[in-house]
Structure formats: structure tokens, C-alpha cells
Amino acid sequence: MTKVYKPLLKTLKLTYPQYLVMLVLWERDAQRVSDIGAALYLDSGTLTPLLKKLEVLGFVERTRSKEDERQVIVSLTSAGRKLQAKSQSIPACVLEASGCELPAVRQMAAQLKVLRSNLVAAHV
After folding, report:
1. Rounded to two decimals, what is the model's pTM?
2. Do residues 72 and 63 touch, judged by C-beta distance below 8 A?
3. Residue 40 belongs to what domain range?
4. Which of 96, 115, 120, 122 has CA 20 to 30 A from 79's CA?
5. Residue 34, SS3?
6. Do 98 and 40 lie in a common domain?
């Protein structure tokens, strides 16, 4: 998957993991680091360097929560919001590269979610 995404993301100056973070933020802006980590199944040790790089690129900003200073809130900048428009063609390009029809991809995604849930439940 990352080999398919790499040339598509190069023009956006994003790596695949950074793109995943941006997808989470495009769905809902201003999230706690822990919530982004939960959505992507990443721990803060893995996520923090990604967020720092996205901040250096000017796509996000990190601020301390006013309610709880232990929490860091990650928000999109205007550049980060503009990047979403530039990324609109990526899913269609990946779908085309897969050689699959959209219903089949959706079915596989649903099966993978069940598999992930089962593995998480078994590991707890």
C-alpha cells in the first residue's frame, strides 16, 4: 500500500503515516493526541514525531488543552485545511491501482475491521 501512496503523497510532502493523521483531522479537527492515537492504533511515542513534522510543515498546530494541561490538542492550520482539497484524487487513484471495484474494497475493509477487532480482543 505504501508504495502505491508514496508517489501520490510526494506532491503533498507527506509520508503515508502523516497522511493517515491528516485524514483523521480532516474528519474532525482539533483532537487530543490520545484520540488520534486511538483512531490509528498508534502510541504517543510513535505519533509525537509525526505530529512534530506536520507542525514544522505548517499543516497542524499543537496546543495544551485549557481544561487539562496534560492533554495536547492537534488542530489543522489553514494550510492543513487547503491540503485536503489537494488530496481529493488520492482515494480514486488508489482504488484504480487496486484493480478492484468499490463494493469489493468496502467488503474487504469491513472484513479487516472484524479481524482487527478480534485480534485486539484476543490480545487484551
Report:
1. 0.89
2. yes
3. 2-87
4. 96
5. helix
6. no
Cell 485486539: give the residue. Answer: 120
Is the Cβ–Cβ distance between 68 and 48 less than 8 Å? Answer: no
Question: Which ranges of the chain would DSSP assign to H, the alpha helix?
Answer: 2-10, 16-27, 33-40, 44-56, 78-86, 90-98, 102-123
Residue 8 binned pLDDT confidence (cut-offs 50, 70, 90): very high
Residue 113 clears pLDDT 80, i.e. is over it: yes
Nearest to 20 by CA among 40, 49, 41, 44: 40
98 in the same domain as 73: no
Per-residue pLDDT tens over the stretch 51-108:
999 999 999 999 998 888 889 999 999 999 999 999 999 999 999 999 999 999 999 9
3-class state of residue 77 by DSSP: coil
Name the 3-class secondary structure at 98: helix
Q: What is the pLDDT of residue 72?
A: 92
Number of domains in the chain: 2
The span from the CA of 86 to the CA of 80, in Å, is 10
What end-to-end distance do the CA atoms of the chain give, in Å?
28
